[in-house]
């Protein structure tokens, strides 16, 4: 007697097999039910722990077809030789590094900073993050040019503009200009330092504190004189300072928070 299969589901309606991928440390996946995206830091019997770019941890069951890898459904499986928790590598900003990630096509939105040194510091610490997000950083050359730049840029829902300003304290000239150009699609934030040099922790540069420079004197020149650095070549001094910056840990929190705020704003 001929035997018939009890499964009468048409072949085109049956779930298609998906690849099994070892949950190796550092693998970046998304859990579609929650939208949580992060790197694998631990894989134990039946569960996997992910860490997102902000350091938040979530534990998920290792279920069939339970994750997305580069937009494709996959089944995560425990690696054949699991060695326990391993922290994934990180970018200089502290975000989880994504090995092999390609730079995104540049967004219409932009981040402007006040000068060349500001741009170089932001690039060194946040450069990897900015390329993945497709954010371009440009420098103003001076806050006095900000109103005309904002007007020419014409920020909108699909082209947000973020601006980082030095020495943004209430009542200052910079503060008044920032207030005048801020809108729903243009965000101006600032740090309290006279110059971006001060946003580098003194301990990272090998000094006890940044010197106080009398009002009316050029700040960079005054700092160099006070510390015995060559005041006639502040560009070379800045490159020496920048070389001491290895990651976000070398910067003051007042700068870190403002840059992260701008990145979030222009990538919404």
Automatic annotation (TrEMBL):
InterPro entries: DUF3097_C (IPR021447), DUF3097_N (IPR053883). Residues 20-79, 110-267 form the DUF3097 domain. It holds the Pfam family DUF3097_N. This is DUF3097 domain-containing protein. It comes from Streptomyces salinarius.
């Amino acid at each position: 007697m001929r035997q018939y299969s009890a499964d009468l589901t048409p072949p085109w309606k049956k779930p298609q097999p998906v690849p099994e991928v070892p949950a190796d440390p550092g693998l970046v996946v998304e859990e579609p039910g929650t939208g949580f995206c992060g790197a694998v830091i631990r894989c134990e019997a039946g569960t996997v722990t992910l860490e997102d770019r902000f350091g938040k941890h979530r534990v998920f069951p290792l279920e069939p077809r339970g994750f997305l890898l580069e937009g494709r459904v996959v089944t995560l499986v425990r690696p054949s030789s699991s060695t326990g928790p391993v922290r994934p590598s990180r970018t200089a900003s502290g975000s989880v590094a994504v090995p092999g990630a390609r730079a995104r096509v540049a967004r219409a939105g932009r981040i402007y900073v006040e000068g060349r040194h500001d741009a170089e510091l932001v690039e060194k610490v946040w450069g990897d993050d900015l390329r993945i997000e497709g954010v371009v950083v440009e420098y103003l050359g001076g806050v006095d040019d900000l109103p005309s730049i904002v007007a020419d840029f014409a920020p909108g829902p699909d082209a947000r503009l973020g601006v980082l300003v030095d020495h943004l304290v209430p009542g200052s000239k910079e503060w008044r200009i920032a207030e005048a150009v801020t809108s729903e699609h243009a965000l101006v934030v600032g740090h309290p330092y006279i110059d971006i040099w001060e946003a580098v922790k003194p301990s990272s540069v090998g000094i006890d504190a940044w010197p106080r420079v009398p009002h009316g004197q050029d700040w960079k020149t005054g700092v160099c004189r006070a510390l015995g650095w060559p005041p006639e070549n502040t560009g070379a001094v800045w490159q020496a300072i920048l070389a001491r910056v290895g990651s976000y840990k070398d910067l003051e929190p007042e700068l870190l928070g403002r840059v992260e705020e701008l990145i979030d704003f222009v990538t919404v």
